[in-house]
Amino acid sequence: MTTPTHILIVNRDAAAGEALQQTLSEQGYAAARVDTGKDALAELDRRRAQPDAAPIGVVIADQDAAGPESGLGLIRRLHDDWPLVVPVMVSGFRKLESAVQAMRLGAADYLLKPVVQAELIEAVQRATQRHLLRVEHETAQQDVADVNTDLSPKRRADDAPPDQDTANNDNAWQPIPLSQAMKEPERQILLAALEANDWNRQQTAKDLDINRTTLYKKIRLYRLDEPA
User: Fold this and answer.
1) Over the stretch 18-42, which tens digit does the pLDDT of each residue have?
2) Does the reported pTM lie above 0.70?
3) Is 224 exposed, middle or buried (0-12, 13-18, 19+ CB in 10 A)?
4) Which domain covers residue 56, as residue numbers?
């Protein structure tokens, strides 16, 4: 990573939260702590309102905390309102249903208390990679939108100022087939989506709202090979 991914720990237990914060700081992460899910959402809003503030990439949520915006409630809010943020769930009890729901809502992992340091680091690494993939995916989609916005009809010669020689203007826009212009952005979107879904083609096709046959054809077209 060229810059550290910022982590937000949501834990009312100050001692436990500070221990997690210390562990992550020693690994090079910029970690902060808040008490509740409501505080976490307020912090996310605060950073979004300040362009110079570093955005949060991963949230470590305590499943055992009370309140509608804690635990799974917080993860649902992140899923709906903060799709680039990847949560990691922490719980004192082995709750299969909660774990499944958390994963379906985009959680990278479900850790049991007391949290083992090595497991925490591995979970945050996975969450960080997923966050970066989501950012890349969004950037690729924005690039496609920018291409569509920026493409404009070729300026006619009689629209140029009389003293401008458009034939010799190296900066003049030159037309290319739209299909060619869209290839690289489309390839980047496909690759980011495949990686975000661990190369699960069925889920990738669903996320991209295309059928699997179309997805397979595009994978062959762009020579996207699943890593060994």
Assistant:
1) 999 999 999 999 999 999 999 999 9
2) no
3) middle
4) 6-130
